[in-house]
Request: fold
Amino acid sequence: MDARVEDETFEDWVAEAIDALPDQFRERLGSVAIVIEEWPTQEQLASVGAYGLYGLYSGVPRNRLGADWAQTPSRITIFRGTLERQFRTPEALRAKVIDTVHHEIAHHFGISDERLHELAEERGGR
Reply:
C-alpha cells in the first residue's frame, strides 16, 4: 500500500523544505520553478539513466558561467508517485520529500551526486 497524503500536505512539505534553507541559498533560488508531477516520463528517466526518480533538476546550475542568461529557466520536479510508492508512512514520506527537494536544489547550485554522497558519508552515512 502506498502512503497517499492530501495534495495540500505534500505541497506543504515542499514549502517546508524551501523554508528550511539558509537565507543565502533561499534568496539565490531566483526564478527556479519547483513543480510536483505524479511520475517521471520515459524521457526524464532516460536523461539520467535511471529506472525511477524522486526528483529531477533541469537547467543551468548557478556555478556555471552564463547561468544568469540561460535561455531556459531552471526547473525542479518532485515526483510524488515515486516517493509515495517507496515511503509507506507519512513520517518517512515527509522526510524523503524534504530530502529530495534539498538534493535537487543542491544540483541547482552545481553540486554533483558524487559530492552529495560524499557529504552524506561525512555526516554519518545519512
Summary: Helices lie at 7-19, 23-26, 42-48, 80-86, 90-108, 113-122. The first helix runs from residue 7 to 19. The chain is about 50% helix and 10% strand. The CA atoms of residues 115 and 121 lie 10 Å apart.
